[in-house]
Write a structure and sequence with these properties.
Layout (H helix, E strand, L loop, with lengths): L3 E11 L6 E5 L2 E6 L6 E2 L16 H5 L7 E7 L2 E6 L5 E3 L2 E2 L3 E3 L8 E5 L3 E11 L14
Parallel strand pairs: 3-4
Antiparallel strand pairs: 1-2, 1-11, 3-5, 5-6, 6-9, 7-8, 7-10, 10-11
């Protein structure tokens, strides 16, 4: 069987993360939240580092995302774990995550990850063939 490279791709589908894409490499982990030290920062404005004020609409939903909301550990296709670190809840396909759980079924179809009330991602497991190592041939010249 040929070797392959596995990654988890998160695509923002609602909230401040809408339209943004993130990748978690096999053997890695990511913490998602509002804090500056998170791997994936929700509500991060490209134009400014000022905190968002609660006015109305989208900003209200941002306050349901904790500073350190969720941790995803990706050790392999059968070893993907999610840990809810929040007060407002983490949901996979609408089901609340309690503590630390294994993610099952992502090899068959993408899963929706929702943080709080509105921040949503499409999570999918991507398999790509490993890049072939170049074959090096050394020829000797007769002198």
């Amino acid at each position: 069987m040929a070797e392959e490279t596995l990654t988890i791709k998160l695509t923002g589908i609602a909230g401040f993360c809408k339209g943004k894409e993130y990748v978690i490499e096999e053997g890695g982990e990511a913490i998602i939240g509002r804090s500056r030290d998170c791997t994936i920062r929700v509500g991060d404005s490209d134009a400014t580092d000022k905190p968002h004020k609660a006015t109305a609409g989208k900003d209200d939903h941002l306050h349901t995302v904790s500073r350190h909301h969720v941790k995803i550990s990706f050790q392999g296709a059968k070893a993907i774990y999610i840990e809810d670190l929040s007060k407002h809840g983490t949901f996979l396909n609408g089901h609340k995550v309690d503590g630390r759980d294994q993610i099952i079924g992502m090899r068959k179809a993408p899963i929706e990850l929702r943080l709080g009330t509105n921040e949503s991602f499409r999570m999918e497991l991507l398999r790509e063939p490993a890049k072939a190592k170049p074959k090096i041939t050394v020829k000797r010249r007769d002198s």
